[in-house]
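Take a record:
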Amino acid sequence: MNLEKEIISVGIKLFKKYGYDNTTINMICEGAKISKGTFYYHFQGKHDIIYGHIETFMSDIVDVFPKVLQLSNPKEQLWELYKYSFEHIVSMNPQLLLAFYKADIDNHLKQLSPSSKGTYQYHTNSFNKMILALVKKCQEADSIKASVPAENLVMAFDSAIVGTGLDWACNGGKFDEVERLKNIFETIFTK
C-alpha cells in the first residue's frame, strides 16, 4: 500500500472511532507514523482524507465491472454497479457521510472563488462512462424508457442518491438506504 493510501486508511479508521470532528491531524499523523509536513505534502486537510477514500473506492469499482457484466440483463448490471457503491457508502457510517457532504459543500463554495482549484468531483469519469453505457444498453434492450436521454436519467438518479444519502446520514442511518434507493431506481429506470 502506498503512503497516501495508508494515511487515508488510518484517517478513516480514526474518523469511525472518534468521529470526524474529534479526530485531529495530529492523531492521523501519529497513527500513520508520519510528520505533519508529510501529511500536508499529500493533503490540504482532513477533508481530503474523505475525498481520497471515496476516490479510491470509485477507482476500485472498475475492478467490479467484469463481474457485473456476467449478469445477462443490462438493467440488473446497472443496479448491481450502483448497489456496490451504495453498500460502500453505508459502510462509511452516517457521521462520516455527513462529514463528506459538509466538506463537499465547503469545497463547492470555495469553487465560487476565482482563486479556487476545486479538488473533487462526485464520480470519476470511468464510473460515469460505465453507468452511461449501461443505461444506453438498457434503452437499446428496451428494459428502460428510451424516450428520455440517458444522461437525464443518470442525472435524476444521481440527485436521488445525494438526497437519500443526506437523509440517511441526518437520520443516523435509521432506514435501509440501499432498499430506498432500489425503489427510486425502479421508479426512474422504468419502461
Q: What stands out?
A: The longest helix spans residues 150-170.
